[in-house]
Amino acid sequence: MRPYAFGADVGGTTVKIGFFRTDGTLIKDLEIKTNTVQGGRAILPDICDAIIKMMREADICADDVEGVGIGAPGAVRPDGTIAGAVNLGWESFDLEETFSALLSGRLEAAGLQRAETTGPLCVKAANDANAAALGEMWKGGGAGCPDMVMVTLGTGVGGGVIANGRIVTGSSGAGGEIGHIPIAEPEDEPEACGCGKHGCFEQYASARGLVNLARRYCSAHPDKESILRDVADLTAKEVFAAAAEGDAPAIAIREQYFSILGRGLASVTAVVNPQRYVIGGGVSKAGTVLIDGIAKYHEIYAFQPARQVQFVLAELGNLAGIYGCCRLVLE
Amino acid sequence: MRPYAFGADVGGTTVKIGFFRTDGTLIKDLEIKTNTVQGGRAILPDICDAIIKMMREADICADDVEGVGIGAPGAVRPDGTIAGAVNLGWESFDLEETFSALLSGRLEAAGLQRAETTGPLCVKAANDANAAALGEMWKGGGAGCPDMVMVTLGTGVGGGVIANGRIVTGSSGAGGEIGHIPIAEPEDEPEACGCGKHGCFEQYASARGLVNLARRYCSAHPDKESILRDVADLTAKEVFAAAAEGDAPAIAIREQYFSILGRGLASVTAVVNPQRYVIGGGVSKAGTVLIDGIAKYHEIYAFQPARQVQFVLAELGNLAGIYGCCRLVLE
Questions:
Q1: pTM of the model
Q2: Is A271 close to B271, i.e. CB distance below 8 A?
Q3: Which of A37, A194, A329, B256 could form a disulfide with A122 if both were Cys (CB 3.0 to 4.6 A apart)?
Q4: DSSP designation for B81
Q5: If contacts are CB pairs under 8 Å, which of residues 170-199 in chain B contact chain A?
Q6: What is the pLDDT of residues B226-260, one digit of tens each?
């Protein structure tokens, strides 16, 4: 194994790039702006330039680098093609091949290419949520667990499934899209999910889902006093805060939310039987009360032989992606 | 790779043993009675004897055999230990290690052992449903699909998930237990599942589940005439037959059953995004009407980017297990 590797996590606003030792030590990370103009055509060249700059600063060449992993917010298929990434302006193309060719050309132009006798740099691509799960498995909350699931509770609900130590990419790159497990009948859920369906797990389990639960609870119980009624733009954080202060409706809402999370993850458990769930995203700031709440209801809904699951908080924050991207090329 | 391998699929009544070329050609298969007396202690020795007999008949020794895979009706963990198998009388033990040691000893006693310079035979164990899924991926309905799910619709609902060409065993050997996805609230389902929970997918999607749907439909619609009312011991087969003959309640019940199957499998799709579902078990005798019915509702409930799934019938019948057990040792 060569001593260094890079991970590039492409988001809609910034690209995070990590320069790693292949033992997993992060030497340096930086962010560059995501240039989405003209179909995002500058994004990959910008990443190449940033990597070459970091290589120059460290005085290394491509012979010192095992590979470069890249994560993007779209469905990345097992063959390295991406189905498109709306936030980046990308349409469908062969991400791995394109990035690999571009990087090789730029390294050569910079005089940092590999010796002719060795092959090209390894380049691997993955969906960003799946890469984050792999990162948490490698150096975060899932360390030491070859069978784990990362769940990101934010504006939406993201997921990444790791089985046998590898990302479950799925045949069209949609593995781990646990936010779209159908948990309610379409006719029972008036609002449409971002995916176009009705009744997705995400519609209840996301930060917005929690707020919707709170609104519905307050409407359905006009007689119950609650500090939540006085909040103009209610957020998940405020529901947790009110519950912590003993507000009875907030406690009931929080309990309903935990029940939905526990039941939804029990479905995931029946399919892949993970050893550990790593919970990240904005809602995870609620901390141990969230972890304990999910665990309580998972215990009720999960298949008995698969109940011995650990629930932990994510540890790498928004660096999980670069760790995972780096790990992609070390397999 | 050595030219031959064996697969042994242990069931509560018989053990099926397959003698294979390592290219997947089944040379011979046989069944022996499962001797469950005294905690099933004779089962593994009986399998060893049968294998040695087949080796003698083929005039080969252990140097010609890549390995022996064994499947059993219990949770087999990634380390090769089994949590127990009620149908066999087995309690928890190290199945892989025990079987490997026993087989080595018997081969030596028979003068068929490997030359001293080569290592011992490879022995691998798996849950029987997971092994069947691997068998279908290798030489059956899932051939060529490294990401597939086998679903067995019988007395219960069994499953096996293959991702990246490997069984998703899960941390406690309960991967692919899709029959225990919670799909109804416990309070809405009076009858308990075999696992002790209420509201499991299996309670609706199994052959018995279909019969229960039929009973409930007939009770809820006392005014509707149906030939199902005259059947004393209703079976899934009779519901499908009545629907095929145009019996309106039977058609409605069948449609409800397809909807439940489509929705349940859409949950699995959101987690692992398979390319193909392979449907086996007694209910699969309904054939293309079942396949088309599941596909119709899966399309409605599944996450859009993961909808391009193929539904096919299982092809290996009750030989799937020995194929999969053999495949275990060829990875």
A1: 0.95
A2: yes
A3: A329
A4: -
A5: 170-182, 186, 195-197
A6: 999 989 899 999 999 999 999 999 999 999 999 99
